[in-house]
Design brief:
Pfam families: MST. 53% of the residues lie in helices and 3% in strands. It has five helices and two strands; from the N terminus they run ααααββα. The chain has a two-stranded antiparallel sheet. The model has no long low-confidence stretch (mean pLDDT 93).
Length: 174
C-alpha cells in the first residue's frame, strides 16, 4: 500500500496513485478490528470506521462509474436510505465492504485508462449542491476523489484511535 506516492511523469498514473494512497489509509483504519469494533460509533457522531469505508467506496463509484462513465449506479440511494451508505446493513461485513472497495478501485482504473485524456468533461447531475448546468473534467473528478478520500481517511483515523488507541503510524503494517 502506498503511503508516499512515487514521483510520476504521467498525470493519470499519479492521480490514480494519490487516490489509492487514500484508499489504503481507509483499509488500514479497519485492519485488525472485529466486526463489532469496526461498526462501533465511539464518538457522538453517527460514523463508524466501517461506515466511512463503505461511504467512500460508494462515493468513488458514483463519481467515476455513474457521473464520469454514465453507467448505472451499483447502490441506489435516496433520502430514505442515504444513511445506509454510512453503516453496515443487512448482514454486511467489513470483508464485504473491502471487496466492494476493491471492485470499485478496479473499475475506476479501467474507466480512467479508457479515457482519451483527462480533459474529458461530463455534466453533473441535478442536485441542490451542484450549480445548475455544471460540467467537470475527469481531472477535476480525480482531484475531488483525492480530496474526499483524504478527508474521510482522517475521520477514519480519529474513529480508529477512539476505538482501540491505534494510530495511523501503528497501522502501517496492515
Amino acid at each position: 500500500m502506498p503511503v508516499l506516492v512515487s514521483a510520476e511523469t504521467d498525470e493519470r498514473a499519479a492521480l490514480l496513485q494519490f487516490v489509492e494512497a487514500q484508499r489504503g489509509a481507509l483499509r488500514r483504519a479497519v485492519g485488525g478490528l472485529t466486526e463489532e469494533q469496526a461498526s462501533s460509533r465511539p464518538t457522538v457522531s453517527e460514523l463508524s470506521v466501517a461506515g466511512v469505508l463503505k461511504h467512500c467506496a460508494e462515493m468513488e463509484s458514483n463519481w467515476v462509474r455513474v457521473i464520469l462513465a454514465g453507467r448505472p449506479s451499483l447502490r441506489q440511494r435516496d433520502q430514505s436510505n442515504w444513511g445506509d451508505s454510512f453503516r453496515l446493513v443487512d448482514g454486511e461485513t467489513v470483508d464485504d465492504v473491502l471487496a466492494f472497495q476493491e471492485a470499485v478501485s478496479a473499475e475506476t482504473a479501467e474507466i480512467i485508462a479508457a479515457l482519451p485524456d483527462l480533459d474529458v468533461e461530463v455534466p453533473l447531475p441535478e442536485a441542490p449542491w451542484f450549480p445548475q448546468g455544471s460540467h467537470r473534467s475527469a481531472r477535476w473528478i480525480l482531484l475531488h476523489l483525492v480530496e474526499e478520500l483524504a478527508r474521510h481517511a482522517g475521520h477514519a483515523d480519529i474513529l480508529r484511535e477512539s476505538v482501540d488507541g491505534a494510530t495511523a503510524f501503528a497501522l502501517l503494517g496492515w
